[in-house]
Structure formats: structure tokens, C-alpha cells
Design brief:
By secondary structure, the protein is low in regular secondary structure. 13% of the residues lie in helices and 9% in strands. It has a domain at 32-98. It binds iron/sulfur cluster (2 copies). Residues 19, 21, 24, 26-28, 87, 89, 94, 97-98 line the site of one iron/sulfur cluster.
């Protein structure tokens, strides 16, 4: 049997990582989250933006204060803001955020 020198052995190909929140470093939880409706976010997690609107408070490093830093999961999932509910896994915005933090996946 002859071997094509230009052919990449299958074993060297890395599979595309699946886009799921469970394998993501919660990239979208560094975005500003405006509170448009009352979903029961605890007051201690709410900040005021420069226009007087309610937003999720963020820590100095940019991450949402409600993000559990051990699990990188939302600690108020049942009460998460509407904006977070609408941010669709696998959407263009999601992929953009993941690519922005792509060094995490290397
Ligand atoms: S929605 Fe996208 S960016 Fe946000 S945690 Fe899930 S996979 Fe990561
Ligand atoms: S409220 Fe939860 S889902 Fe929304 S940005 Fe904060 S940690 Fe992420």
C-alpha cells in the first residue's frame, strides 16, 4: 500500500470543541448585563450604570459578581436576568465571546 505524503493522518486532527455552556469559561459573563425586568436578582448583585439604569455588578476583573468562580456557572441561574436568558448558546454573539477568550481553550 502506498501512502500519500500530503495526507494528514486522522490521528493528528483535533476535533472541533463542542459549543456548550458546560465546556465554556462563561465568556459571556464578562459582558454588561442591563436589568430590563425584575427576575429576582438579589439587590447585592445590582449596580447602577452611568445613566442610572440597573445592571449586574461586576468585579474589578470584569466578571459578573454572580458568577461562581469555582464552577464558572451562574450562582443565580433561576433568577438570572432576561438578557442572560436571551443570550443564545452557539449564536454569533456567543461564538464571538468565546473567540475573544480563545486562549482559555488552548
Ligand atoms: S452562551 Fe456561549 S459564551 Fe456564554 S457561557 Fe454559554 S457557550 Fe459560553
Ligand atoms: S447573572 Fe449569571 S448568567 Fe448572567 S452574566 Fe451573571 S453569572 Fe452570567
Amino acid at each position: 500500500m502506498t501512502t500519500d505524503p500530503n495526507q494528514i493522518p486522522l490521528t493528528t486532527l483535533e476535533p472541533e470543541p463542542a459549543v456548550t455552556c458546560s465546556t465554556c469559561a462563561a465568556c459571556c459573563c464578562q459582558l454588561e448585563v442591563i436589568l430590563l425586568t425584575d427576575t429576582g436578582v438579589p439587590d447585592r448583585y445590582i449596580d447602577t450604570d452611568e445613566w442610572g439604569g440597573d445592571v449586574m455588578a461586576r468585579l474589578d476583573d470584569g466578571w459578573c459578581i454572580a458568577l461562581d468562580r469555582d464552577t464558572m456557572l451562574c450562582s443565580i441561574y433561576e433568577n438570572r436576568p432576561w438578557v442572560c436568558r436571551e443570550f443564545e448558546m452557539g449564536s454569533a454573539e456567543c461564538l464571538e465571546e468565546r473567540n475573544g477568550l480563545s486562549t482559555i481553550y488552548r
